[in-house]
Amino acid sequence: MTATRGFGIDIGGSGIKGALVDLEKGALIGDRFRIDTPRPATPDAVADVVAQIVAHFGWDGPVGITLPAVVKKGVAHTAANIDPSWIGTDADALFAKRLDRHEDDIAMLNDADAAGMAEIRYGDPAARKGVTTLLTFGTGIGSALFQHGTLMPNTEFGHVEVDGHDAEKKAAASVKDNEGLSYPQWAKRVNRYLSVLENLIWPDLFIVGGGVSKKAEKWVPLLEIRTPVLAASLQNNAGIVGAALAAAEGLEH
Fold first, then answer.
1. What is the 3-state secondary structure (H, E, C) of the chain?
2. Contact partners, residue 110, CB within 8 Å, separation at least 6
């Protein structure tokens, strides 16, 4: 029997968010619950917050969890905007123990990969054809790459070098806020980044997500690149939905 409800948690650099998910519609059931990411964001501190969120909903089924990290077979291999002690951590085992679940009931995946999976499943059908790249603009820049709807996991396109800088250091949404940039000023930086990226991977479509996608009309029309750009249909909930989908269908990389 196919699950119709799932549960996802999206761990970010500034907040940890969880919600029940309608897996048929790709939509949240009720409100999401958010707690600020602890400082420092060590594995144990983050696991405590995740346990709080699961308890808040009284959820006892499989749990999908995203990390801003390269995740292979449940182990974190990088740590972007979370504590470096995540590197080498068996996140599957950590959360299984903290949530009193079997490891098979925990699905760990990269945050942008989760968001991309949700967009491919529930978003614009154009995303399922050719090469699609989803980029999440938040504390950093996450990326997910798809070929005809199949994920190539753990791309790190937010760290492509652009004009001598790590791309996310100049074009993440957090930089816009920290430097007080207007949307047109920030859009110029995003445009430069996307023009470099499109010359590397030649995608057929960019999907832009993260919290800033809620204001897509203020900056996406200002982009002047050859590749079509769509705002993420699930906006900043895509990571939660993708995590829940991964847990329900046993998808992990």
1. CCCCEEEEEEECCCEEEEEEEECCCCEEEEEEEEEECCCCCCHHHHHHHHHHHHHHHCCCCCEEEEECCCEECCEECCCCCCCHHHCCCEHHHHHHHHHCCCHHHEEEEEHHHHHHHHHHHHCCHHHHCCEEEEEEECCCEEEEEEECCEEECCCCHHHCEECCEEHHHHHCHHHHHHHCCCHHHHHHHHHHHHHHHHHHHCCCEEEEECHHHHHHHHCHHHCCCCCCEEECCCHHHHHHHHHHHHHHHCCCC
2. 66, 67, 68, 69, 70, 71, 142, 144, 153, 154, 253
Digit-coded pLDDT (tens) for 121-158: 999 999 999 999 999 999 899 999 999 999 999 999 99
What are the pLDDT digits (tens) for 222-240?
A: 999 999 999 999 988 999 9
Q: Is the pTM of this model over 0.85?
A: yes
